[in-house]
Specification:
The chain has 5 helices and 6 strands. By secondary structure, the protein is α/β, with parallel strands linked by helices. The chain has one domain. The mean pLDDT is 80.
Length: 165
């Protein structure tokens, strides 16, 4: 199963894809509301509160992986940052049943700083709703360069130039 990570909130996701019902949506905003926390105080959460939120997120992912009608999980976190993305990806990829983690960005590529952390980046459709699997994607060459891994597709390409394609 694939986990899609995005900084956009649930309404943007729901209006962008046709086959949304085949994906489990884990919204950090909804989880904060569920426990009565303020998303604007994301950075100031006590260790106990952070553990409660993290446990709930992982519980929802474990459930989503087990449900056969879901083909993927969409993790929406508007407070996603480059400081916490490594830990999130590591947690997700170590879950039994998760095969890939993909980042979803807007077509204007406003979250380019996250590209090096992912093998693949997908984009929201710009004109009409489409299925998530048919969304435009590209392999992030920066992933191989930042992690000092040999790119299996190409030799000696400038990783920064690949972002402008």
């Amino acid at each position: 199963m694939t986990i899609y990570i995005t900084k956009e909130d649930a309404p943007k996701i729901k209006e962008s894809y046709l086959n949304f019902s085949h994906y489990a949506l884990i919204s950090v905003t909804n989880i904060f509301n569920e426990f009565g926390y303020d998303l604007n105080e994301y950075e100031e959460l006590s260790p106990y509160s952070a553990e409660v939120v993290n446990t709930r997120i992982l519980d929802l992912i474990y459930r989503g992986v087990k449900i056969k009608r879901f083909v993927g999980i969409i993790y929406s976190n508007p407070k996603l940052s480059t400081e916490n993305i490594d830990g999130i990806i590591e947690k997700f990829i170590n879950i039994n049943g998760v095969s890939n983690v993909i980042f979803i960005d807007n077509n204007d590529k406003k979250y380019r700083e996250f590209y090096p952390y992912f093998n693949e980046v997908s984009f929201y459709p710009s004109i009409k709703k489409i299925t998530l699997i048919k969304a435009e994607k590209f392999d992030s060459k920066m992933f191989y360069w930042v992690n000092d891994i040999e790119d299996p597709d190409e030799e000696n390409e400038d990783p920064v130039a690949s972002l402008d394609k």
